[in-house]
Amino acid sequence: MSLLEARDLHVEFSSRGRRARAVDGVNLQVGEGEIVALVGESGCGKTTLARTLLGLERPTSGSVLYGGAPLSYSSRALKAYRREVQLVLQDPTGSLNPRHTVYEAVAEGPRIHGMPDEEERVASALSRAGLRPPERFLHSYPHELSGGQRQRVVIAGALALDPRVLVADEPVASLDASVRGEILALMLRLRDELGLSALVVTHDLGLAWNIADRVAVMYLGRIVESGPVEQILKSPSHPYTQALLSVLPESPSPVVLGGEPPDPTRIPHGCRFHPRCQVLAAGTAAGAGVDGRCRSQLLPVLSSSADSQVACHYAGARRR
């Protein structure tokens, strides 16, 4: 069952007199007890999509659905929604007030929502986040903790509200490699023990491989490939996904993308990836007879199906 869903979602901003289509037609679902990785390089729109799913940005068109019902943007409805859909930020140091103890940081959410049994709730959240015994950390300040411990405090702050969904924006990007595995293992344990769902926003396909059930690859405001994580990462169909995977250490030959990074105010005709596409540049798309379509023919917006999907003229020609 779909718990959190983007349906034909568009988010636009005005930038220096031009219109930036940050999210330009996205269908995406996060099911109950499911971890979905949203992957793409900086500027592709994934953080804007995550903020819109959290109700922090209002869509230009389309809708966000939670439990099958469209999200309401009244203050009361958003307050109730954000208790159940919680954000975990990239930088735990910036997320925590240096003047607040761990207890105060974790208790802030329950106080805002008027939840009972504050002390028990804080201790339980810290314990579930792997800070045991919780009494050891209650009166500590952020500067007295390691980076991994600070990230656990941020996660505990979310858990204190008993959410159903976590939206984690680059949750381990600021951590040492030795600590990243611990935080990823924690998120998997929370999924298994509490039934939590999660949308994990990342530029790292290696992280997606280790934690996600499904992966959605985003480029210039749209999902260009999606499906079960093993299928997409073992046999990627889209040239952009192939390029992202090629930078992993085990890849035999990295793909260096040419052209300019994506600009949401200047979306090209045809396939939006074609100015940087290594398959088109190498003449392989021409050999398949699709190079003209790559440059001029729009691709359909992918559905929110859990099956493997790709928005690519060349991949479509190979499958036929």
UniProtKB/TrEMBL annotation:
Keywords: ATP-binding, Nucleotide-binding, Transport
InterPro entries: AAA+_ATPase, ABC_transp_ATP-bind, ABC_transporter-like_ATP-bd, ABC_transporter-like_CS, Oligopep_ABC_C, P-loop_NTPase
GO molecular function, a single term: ATP hydrolysis activity
Transport in keyword set: yes
GO biological process, one term: peptide transport
PROSITE patterns: ABC_TRANSPORTER_1, ABC_TRANSPORTER_2
Transport in keyword set: yes
Domain spans labelled ABC transporter: 4-245
Cleaved signal peptide residues: none
Family, similarity comment: Belongs to the ABC transporter superfamily.
Name of the protein this chain belongs to: Oligopeptide/dipeptide ABC transporter ATP-binding protein
Organism, as annotated: Streptosporangium roseum (strain ATCC 12428 / DSM 43021 / JCM 3005 / KCTC 9067 / NCIMB 10171 / NRRL 2505 / NI 9100)
